[in-house]
Amino acid sequence: MVLVDKSFPLPKDTLDAFEQKVEHEKQGELVASLIQHWLEEEHKRKIREEYIAGLVEMEDVSLELEYAYNPLEEEVHRGLPE
Fold first, then answer.
1. Quick check: pTM over 0.90?
2. Residue 4: inside a domain, yes or no?
3. Residue-by-residue pLDDT tens, the chain, 82 positions
4. Number of domains in the chain
């Protein structure tokens, strides 16, 4: 794994609390883990949004299929012995 030294501003209080709670040697690993978790959640969120958009787009098709096949399904159920 290639490591890159990156700098960006953080709120002082947050950084102070972080440095008090996490050993210096573990800080980079924890930040990398948090970033990776965030990236995975963003990926899942995007997939969810695309999935929902697809469902909305296919709603008319689903209704047409339901109208087309519902009578057949009911006919099958009426013909089955109880």
1. no
2. no
3. 899 999 999 999 999 999 999 999 999 999 999 999 999 999 999 999 999 999 999 998 888 888 787 777 777 777 766 6
4. 1
What is 8-57 written as a DSSP string?
A: ----HHHHHHHHHHS-HHHHHHHHHHHHHHHHHHHHHHHHHHHHHHHHHH
Terminal-to-terminal C-alpha distance of the chain: 64
Q: For helices 24-79 and 12-21, give the axis angle rounded to 10 degrees.
A: 90
DSSP code of residue 7? -
Contact call for residues 18 and 27 (beta carbons, < 8 A): yes
Range of the domain at 66: 32-82
